[in-house]
Design a protein that fits this description.
The chain is an alpha/beta fold and 309 residues long. The protein contains 9 helices and 12 strands. The chain has 2 domains: 106 residues, 3-Layer(aba) Sandwich (Rossmann fold), CATH 3.40.50; 180 residues, NAD(P)-binding Rossmann-like Domain (Rossmann fold), CATH 3.40.50. β6, α5 and β7 form a beta-alpha-beta unit. The two termini are 28 Å apart. The relative contact order is 0.15. The mean pLDDT is 97.
């Protein structure tokens, strides 16, 4: 049997080397050079073109090379009888928590303002807010959301959490369901998006939800760009209702040069780096998924295709 590999990243060679080291007896077929499709029993992919996976009749499982699975779920020809798994790597959760803590602290401490003052050679101190008096709302309470909550709680922030279904997490006041979202946002001086991309989260942050946030609120999006209506965000920033935003994910990536987000003075941009998967730690996890599938065991972290994550 053989493993299908598709990775469009610029470090795909590193990934392939790490996977071959973890599964030295396996034959990896790099799409489109797949040989006999019937010999392939496992797929490791990231945003493989729609319809491709339907051409492998003996697949036991399909593994995403990242935490996101929306490209797989959205494939109309995805073999629905084949289990799909997301990559759940503790290192990725740690990286996300580092990013979120850094961006929360950057706004909390007013460092953008001090950076502007430096450019003007202007020396002025501003009133400070203690972390315990700053409310941060985490929208999305999966593995990454929970890790972010742990780190932010250790820093002393007042934490709220929101998710589709009920959660109980120490140190965070949790709410769930769409009807509770605006109440959470009304209290959120900083809102952090850690949501999967599903039909329920597309355009979740729009004019109505931005308006629910307190004046001077701040948005951090490190989930998917489709969760945010960019025109509504720009309007909220231009009106002064929102103080700013840090954006790590966009509807179209790379972000087009003509996008007004690039030059907006209240927007900070990073190129989707909040939680990059790492070949070295991911390879043993993916190798275990292969052994599970071939041994007749359920794969771990299986995706619910109907729910989209």
């Amino acid at each position: 049997m053989a493993i299908l590999f598709y990775c469009p990243w610029d470090n795909s060679d590193q990934w392939l080397a790490a996977l071959r080291s973890a599964l030295p007896e396996d034959d990896f077929r790099v799409w489109p050079d797949v040989g006999d499709p019937e010999e392939i029993d496992f797929a490791m992919v990231w945003k493989i073109p729609p319809g491709v996976l339907a051409g492998f009749p003996n697949l036991l499982a399909i593994a995403s090379l990242g935490a996101g699975v929306d490209a797989l779920v959205d494939d109309p020809d995805l073999p629905r009888n084949v289990p799909v798994t997301r990559l759940v790597d503790p290192l990725m959760a740690d990286r996300m928590a580092e990013y979120v803590c850094a961006t929360v602290l950057h706004h909390h401490l007013g460092l953008d303002n001090y950076g502007l003052q430096q450019s003007r050679k202007h020396w002025q101190r501003h009133p400070t807010t203690d972390a315990r008096d700053r409310t941060v709302a985490l929208l999305g309470l999966g593995q990454m959301g929970q890790r972010c909550a742990q780190r932010l709680a250790a820093l002393g922030f007042n934490l709220l959490g929101w998710s589709r279904s009920a959660r109980e997490i120490a140190g965070i006041r949790c709410s769930h369901g769409l009807e509770a979202l605006k109440d959470v946002l009304r209290q959120a001086e900083i809102a952090v998006l850690l949501l999967p991309l599903t039909e329920r989260t597309v355009n979740l942050m729009d004019q109505a939800t931005f308006s629910a946030m307190p004046e001077g609120g701040y948005l951090i999006n490190c989930s998917r760009g489709e969760c945010v209506v960019e025109d509504d965000l720009l309007a909220a920033l231009d009106s002064g209702h929102l103080a700013g935003a840090t954006l790590d994910a966009f509807r179209d990536e790379p972000l087009a040069a003509h996008s007004p987000l690039w030059r907006h003075p209240k927007v900070r941009i990073t190129p989707h780096i909040a939680s990059l998967s790492a070949a070295g730690t991911a390879a043993p996890i993916l190798a275990d998924q292969v052994r599970r599938a071939r041994g007749g065991q359920p794969v771990a972290d299986r995706v619910d295709i109907d729910n989209g994550y």
